[in-house]
Amino acid sequence: GQIVHLADYRPTDFVLERVDLTFELDPTNTKVESRLIFHRREGVDASVPLVLDGDELTLSGLLLDQREVPASQYDETGESLTVRDLPAETPFELTITTFINPEANTQLMGLYRTNGIYCTQCEAEGFRRISYFPDRPDVLAPYTITIIGDKAANPVMLSNGNFLGGAGYDEGRAFAAWFDPHPKPSYLFALVAGDLGVVEDTFETMSGNEVTLKIYVEHGKEARAAYAMDALKRSMKWDEERFGREYDLNIFQIVAVSDFNMGAMENKGLNVFNDKYVLADPETATDQDYANIEAIIAHEYFHNWTGNRITCRDWFQLCLKEGLTVYRDHEFSADMRSRAVKRIAEVRHLKSEQFPDDAGPLAHPVRPTKYREINNFYTTTVYEKGSEVTRMIATLLGADHFKSGMDLYFERHDGQAVTVEDFVKCFEDATGRDLTQFSLWYHQAGTPLVTASGSYDQTNATFTLSLEQMIPATPAQPNKEPMHIPLSFALISDTGSIAAPAEVKGGEVTGDVLHLTTRNQIFTFSGISSRPVLSLNRSFSAPINLHFDQAPADLAHIARHDTDLFARWQALTDLAIGNLTQAARDVREGKAVTCDPVLTSALLEAAGDETLEPAFRAQALTLPSEADIARELGSNNDPDAIHAARQAVLTAIAKAGEETFLHLIGEMAISGPYLPDAASAGKRSLRNIALSYLTYAEETPARLAAAFADADNMTDMAQALTLLAHRFPDKAETSDALATFQARFDNNALVIDKWFSIQAMIPGAGALARIKALMDHPRFVANNPNRVRSLIGAFAFSNPTGFNRPDGEAYRFLAEQILAIDPKNPQLAARILTSMRSWRSLEPQRADHAHAALMTIERAPGLSADVRDIVERMLK
Ligand code: HT7
Ligand code: ZN
Fold first, then answer.
1. For 597, how many CA atoms within 13 A lie in the half-sphere containing its CB?
2. What is the pLDDT of residue 260?
3. pLDDT (tens digit, 9 = 90+) per residue, 341-375?
4. Residue 235 C-alpha to ligand 2 middle, in angstroms?
5. What distance lies between CA 32 and its chain's CA centroid?
6. CATH: 1.10.357.10, 3.40.605.10, 1.25.50.10, 1.10.10.10. Which one for 745-876?
7. Running DSSP on this structure, what letter comes out for residue 537?
8. Is 299 in the pocket of ligand 1 (CB under 6 A)?
9. What is the pLDDT of residue 768?
10. CB within 8 A of 589, min separation 6: which ones?
11. Is the dihedral of CA 743, 744, 746, 750 positive or negative?
12. Residues of the chain with pLDDT > 90: what percent?
């Protein structure tokens, strides 16, 4: 692939007025007739040809204003269609006929078949695999769609917009017609056809319109769509109340499919979902599954305004819709559940997924300026860091001003394809605040490092805080400018109350937010009558790494007293990470591992504090992961030492807290039927983390085998099975439980995915042999992305000791798998390959093996653009 540069953006030469598509469905030979009305943009010379995008297409007919276009007037390459000598003044109609093979489409981009269902995925550049088209997000038009297909095989035929009509056709065929009046780019086009079950409901919008809601699933799975439907209605209501956004068609449809490259897709009025994010019932879905469904249903629905009504001018602006929409779904989940617990989960995810991206060879700005393969830019940087940037705008401006800026954005840009600059300008215009420096968050890659130190002056009753910011070098960005970093703070007195300073000097302060805007900055707080403990970056107000050497006793003080629950969790985590990194160093030096009693007692105090919600207490007890420890150590990592260190600390806590954990298991037991609400989920999570600690202090699997047998819901069952398999991989109780689980859920693909994942993540050197054996299992389906992710993805991303075995065998195995997946599904191959993005932070022997495996991939013939782009950047 060629490198695409933001600086090269220019509008199209031709304006698309209308799109009229007719599909004659056939599993291997679908006919697509596309009628496009264009006019030449004002000022564009009459000699300029029309160039349309294509991908693996063959043209079978081309008409200009209903007359055949002679071969001398156009060129077709499969990748593009160029038509010359088009009218200078008047609109013209181009009719393009192509034939495509949905059955052979294993990339899952364009029109494909999954389990007998026709389905499309057009973002980012999939529409060009359906027909020649100006396939870019700044080309907006209303679409009319006619679908013709075998009547018996396709009782359901769907597209975007409102239903116009449908009926029998000829010889067993039927047709359906749809019209979407809202101008949209081609990436939001969708078509679904086949034999599906449906769940129906309605929603009355704030101005009284009744909207039909339909969720389509495979026959027999209708009952499992109930939670998704409920989440959809709550999302629609919330968007009206919180953002004033109303739905704008008379029908909203969701289709769940089992082969899908990502989570879901926000096609206008017709969202297509990975069925993993639709289907749930207590027997087969975990609390986490329910939370994911709620969040993703909301996310795709919220795109209707942030992404669809207002879309991106070009793909460099991806964060305009994704970062903002993630921010919106985070706020939704925070309102539906516990805000503090939600924030903790967000930050855990950000740090474990986005921070490594920003610290490695794939680092790129939230708003990049160049790409080779746009599919590789659907990253946690664009999504999650993009959301954090939006969140910081809200923090900087305050809730009311943020709302004014959003209102202006919706009013000013409805129906347009716009840029990040247009978005930011709305907040500047609505509030008068200059966001020039703040905008560096969009342009500078890398996680800022803020170093803080504080000192207290008893005589003058002042507390002085020195801050320094440093933004690390990232690919193509060696030097960085200082950023505008909003830091929420509290000064906690020795009695535990929040001290209000008489005055703060040294920079702007709004409410509890310090504005760090220069490389070095000193804030002085006066009127502080006793030595305070500073809590900084509360609620993770900025996505930074903070180096602040605080004594364990001070961290324990924050953990006990801060009014910001997130900050209490953060303090416990900081305490734990100090212990865990020291433990990892000790293991490597052959020393005994110790666990600071300050940590143990702080954790157990939080665990037993009945004034705190159980979900929070569970988060407090969940130690940083092995990947978190590796990130903190930074370089020369030995995953085996990290694992051993973490196990030793867990065991020490388990022994010290046995009584607390036994008590919690009794206290958090739930009687009555399973409910997926946040409070019940919180109790289960506290009970399960207590259970996991207890097993660290025990030598036999008896307690876990009993927990597995007693479980009456998937959350508890999957947790017991995970602990059994990970703690006692070779015991009969484990193989029995695995066999029972597989037999019971054999016909449920989503549960069998869990069965594969649990085994893929069993730590230790035996993992690779297990993975290879599981690939030969009859339930392993090499073409199903969920299944591949559940086995190979879980192994590479989430089994640090198994994947990083010192002999490098697993890296070579992954390279082989990548090369096998790539020809079928390049997007999936490229994504799984990113599991090796932190290879340079491994100790030299492992790093050498990883390097060699990456070189094997790079040298392989016929690589896709997707994999080539990733592997080359990782090796740079
Ligand atoms: N906007 C959607 C992105 C997406 C996607 C991108 C590339 C290839 C396949 C894809 N499926 C979905 C999903 C979202 O962010 O809501
Ligand atoms: Zn999205």
1. 0
2. 98
3. 999 999 999 999 999 999 999 999 999 999 999 99
4. 15
5. 33
6. 1.25.50.10
7. S
8. yes
9. 98
10. none
11. negative
12. 99
The answer on pLDDT for 1 being more than 90 is no
Distance CA 120, CA 106 (A): 12
Asked if 300 is an active-site residue, the reply is yes
Q: Where are the domains of the chain?
A: 19-35+53-60+91-302, 312-443, 449-548, 550-697, 745-876
Which is catalytic among the residues 123, 125, 294, 300? 300
Show the tokens assigned to 576: 């734990």
Nearest atom of ligand 1 to the alpha carbon of 383? 15
ipTM tops the 0.85 cut = yes
Q: Looking at the structure, give the CATH architecture of the domain made up of residues 312-443.
A: Orthogonal Bundle (1.10)
Q: Which residues pair with 198 in a beta bridge?
A: 216
Class assignment of domain 19-35+53-60+91-302?
Answer: mainly beta
Q: What is the pLDDT of residues 727-771, one digit of tens each?
A: 999 999 999 999 999 999 999 999 999 999 999 999 999 999 999
Angle subtended by helix axes 339-349 and 614-621, to nearest 10: 30
pLDDT digits (tens, 9 = 90+) for 18-64: 999 999 999 999 999 999 999 999 999 999 999 999 999 999 999 99
Q: What is the DSSP letter of 437?
A: T
Residue with CA nearest ligand 1 atom 5? 123
Domain made up of 550-697: CATH architecture: Alpha Horseshoe (1.25)
- The mean of the pLDDT values for the chain is 98
Same fold flag, 550-697 and 745-876 = yes
Q: Is the CB of 315 under 6 A from ligand 1?
A: no
- Look at the block and give the residue holding tokens 């092995």: 626
pLDDT in tens, 503-533: 999 999 999 999 999 999 999 999 999 999 9
Q: Which CATH superfamily is domain 449-548 in?
A: Aminopeptidase N, middle-beta domain (2.60.40.1840)
Q: Ligand 1 mean position to 275 CA, how many Å?
A: 14
Which bound ligand lies closest to the C-alpha atom of 830?
1
CB atoms within 10 A of CB 410: 16
Please name which of 154, 187, 170, 184 lies closest in space to residue 30, comparing C-alpha atoms: 154
Q: How far is the CA of 108 from the centre of ligand 1 (A)?
A: 12
Spell out the residues 6+ positions from residue 332 whose beta carbon is closer than 8 angstroms to its own: 235, 238, 242, 295, 298, 302
